[in-house]
């Protein structure tokens, strides 16, 4: 058993035994908040492969924990920023379990002048500490207002952040933001794979237990074909997600912060895993029949998560457009 397998088992057991644990408790007891934080700042010093293992289990359990925005995006943004003082100030706090969020370039209409930040980020995953890319820099800023959205997936809250000439604290250089984005896409792809795998598990269990005409519905050829197609889809999604994680690990020591290989692998994973999760969640509802559309059954929650995840870093077609621009030289 590999280290990532052991980590996966520990996270799965914890989430099953303590589904109501807070992010602070979860982060503190398992150390997942500091998974990608270097050891000198109080973290575990792990890489994208270990991050993907945790993300997959969180997706499988539909966990509401802010792992993606805090332990992945915020941590990677501070690391990529390369500011020693900011890393010493922020990374131990993030490793300790403080929630955070990151506004990437293009996430809002922001202006940074004379050390003051103004503008609005319409949609940002909820987080206490706010990091913003503006004017080629990464800065820490406290929003003037936070307006929570009523979202389709209530387990992943979003906020509108408004900044009205608020002072900022430097947090690093903004040149490596594309790597931060792509590592976020890779982690989300792993999470989507976990959700899709759980949908397949639920559909398969129902096909074995549900009887019609004196036999399990899983014995019918049409149902067998659906489940076989879903298995292929889920395993292919897992391969795409792992490929993105491996590309992220391979680029850790690269001089090019943009990471061409990571960008390609992340675009593939972002496109394929988003659509795979949507398909698996939809087929899970179909295979369950009437009970699949009831409020009491969790199938609808996976479909909602799949739908919202498919927009988080842009829809699948946006990932494909970026991939085409990179690989084929076409204009995105």
UniProtKB/TrEMBL annotation:
Signal peptide: none annotated. Its cofactor is FAD. It comes from the Bacteria. GO terms for molecular function: acyl-CoA dehydrogenase activity; flavin adenine dinucleotide binding. Residues 186-328 form the Acyl-CoA dehydrogenase/oxidase C-terminal domain. The keyword Oxidoreductase applies. InterPro entries: AcylCo_DH-like_C, AcylCo_DH/oxidase_C, AcylCoA_DH/ox_N, AcylCoA_DH/ox_N_sf, AcylCoA_DH/oxidase_NM_dom_sf. Pfam families: Acyl-CoA_dh_1, Acyl-CoA_dh_N. Gene3D superfamilies: Acyl-CoA dehydrogenase/oxidase, N-terminal domain, Butyryl-CoA Dehydrogenase, subunit A, domain 3. Keywords: FAD, Flavoprotein, Oxidoreductase. The keyword Oxidoreductase applies. Residues 27-97 form the Acyl-CoA dehydrogenase/oxidase N-terminal domain. Belongs to the acyl-CoA dehydrogenase family. This is Acyl-CoA/acyl-ACP dehydrogenase. It comes from Nonomuraea rhodomycinica.
């Amino acid at each position: 058993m590999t280290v990532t397998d052991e980590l996966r088992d520990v996270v799965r057991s914890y989430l099953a035994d303590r589904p109501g644990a807070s992010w602070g408790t979860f982060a503190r007891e398992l150390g997942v908040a500091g998974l990608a934080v270097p050891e000198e700042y109080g973290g575990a010093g792990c890489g994208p492969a270990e991050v993907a293992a945790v993300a997959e289990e969180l997706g499988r359990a539909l966990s509401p924990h802010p792992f993606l925005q805090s332990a992945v995006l915020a941590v990677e943004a501070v690391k990529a920023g390369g500011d020693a003082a900011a890393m010493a100030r922020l990374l131990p706090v993030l490793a300790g379990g403080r929630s955070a969020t990151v506004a990437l370039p293009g996430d809002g209409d922001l202006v940074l002048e004379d050390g003051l930040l103004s503008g609005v980020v319409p949609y940002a995953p909820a987080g206490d500490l706010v990091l913003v890319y503006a004017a080629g820099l990464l800065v820490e800023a406290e929003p003037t207002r936070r307006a929570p959205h009523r979202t389709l997936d209530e387990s992943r809250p979003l906020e509108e952040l408004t900044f009205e000439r608020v002072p900022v604290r430097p947090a690093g250089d903004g040149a490596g933001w594309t790597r931060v984005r792509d590592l976020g896409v890779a982690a989300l792809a792993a999470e989507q794979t976990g959700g899709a795998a759980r949908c397949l598990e639920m559909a398969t269990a129902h096909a074995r237990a549900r009887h019609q005409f004196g036999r399990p519905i899983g014995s019918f050829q049409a149902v067998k074909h659906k489940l076989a197609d879903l298995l292929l889809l889920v395993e292919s999604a897992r391969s795409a997600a792992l490929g993105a994680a491996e590309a992220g690990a391979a680029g850790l020591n690269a001089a090019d912060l943009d990471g061409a290989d990571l960008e390609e692998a992340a675009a593939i994973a972002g496109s394929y895993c988003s659509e795979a999760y949507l398909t698996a969640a939809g087929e899970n509802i179909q295979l369950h029949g009437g009970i699949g559309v009831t409020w009491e059954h969790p199938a609808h929650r996976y479909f909602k998560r799949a739908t919202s995840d498919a927009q988080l870093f842009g829809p699948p077609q946006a990932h494909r457009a970026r991939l085409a621009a990179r690989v084929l030289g076409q204009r995105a």
